[in-house]
Amino acid sequence: MATVLIVNDQSLQRLGFRMLLAAQPGLTVVGEAATGAEAVRMSAELHPDVVLMDSHIPDKDSIEAIRRITRPAALPQQPGPARPGRRSPHVLILTTTSDDEYTYGALRAGACGLLPQDATPDELTAAIHSVAAGNAVITSRLTRELIDAIRQLHPVHPAGRADRLDTLTARERDVLTAVASGWSNAEIAARLSIAQTTVKSHITRILTKTGARARVQAVVFAYESGLVRPA
């Protein structure tokens, strides 16, 4: 059972999401928040598996809220015994295609998924289950727009990330380049003539070495570090 915290500044939209998700097997809505500050507090109190956050919450510190939600050390300590092994919530952002800079900032802050606001109910519930399982979710359309945003809004600064890039082996760089190009694990395995389990192992090591929380942050790193450059 995956638990969800809904973050949206519109009460009717929060109600709509609650009703939709409550009707889905394997999902439980544990709370609602209207601002980033409320989302941080309620995440600390309720420990949801997924925080479903609208990109238009009226909070100038919404990016900071994502950072505090996804990093356990940043969450306020609660009274009572410690809960060792508890993982921080995964943040899934509902965004519009015009939110390039916000989307970029959200990913860098630790969001694990991006879904367009015109997604279908089935796409939304599938994305929540996937993010709850620790996977990254981003549509091919948003991946293309994200890459374009990185190119246009944030020039490459390889010097600041040279140390982390240097820790990658040649094969890991090949895999990261393929990930940043939008290839699936199956496509990477076929093109590099390796097993899919090997691809997954490479990606796990890439995330650890680069400090990326999920696959989408690794894509950001690949472009910012200069490993992948615009054609």
Query: Shape from CA axes?
Result: globular
* Highest CATH level, the class of the largest domain: Alpha Beta
- List the domain count as a whole number: 2
Strand-and-helix sequence, N→C?
EHEHEHEHEHEHHHHHH
User: Can you say what the CATH homologous superfamily of the largest domain is?
Assistant: Response regulator
Major sheet description: 6 strands, parallel
Protein model, in words:
The chain is an alpha/beta fold and 231 residues long. The chain folds into two domains: 2-139, 3-Layer(aba) Sandwich (Rossmann fold), CATH 3.40.50.2300; 155-224, Orthogonal Bundle (Arc Repressor Mutant, subunit A), CATH 1.10.10. 51% of the residues lie in helices and 13% in strands. It contains eleven helices and six strands. The protein has helices at 11-22, 36-46, 62-70, 100-109, 121-132, 140-153, 162-166, 170-180, 185-192, 196-210, 215-224, and strands at residues 2-7, 27-33, 50-54, 90-95, 113-116, 137-138. It has a six-stranded parallel β-sheet with strand order 2-1-3-4-5-6, sandwiched between helices. α5 (121-132) links the parallel β5 and β6 (137-138). α2 (36-46) runs parallel beside α3. The longest helix is centred in the last third of the chain and has 15 residues, at 196-210. The radius of gyration is 18 Å and the shape is globular. The protein starts with a strand and ends in a 7-residue tail after the last helix. Residues 74-84 have low confidence and may be disordered.
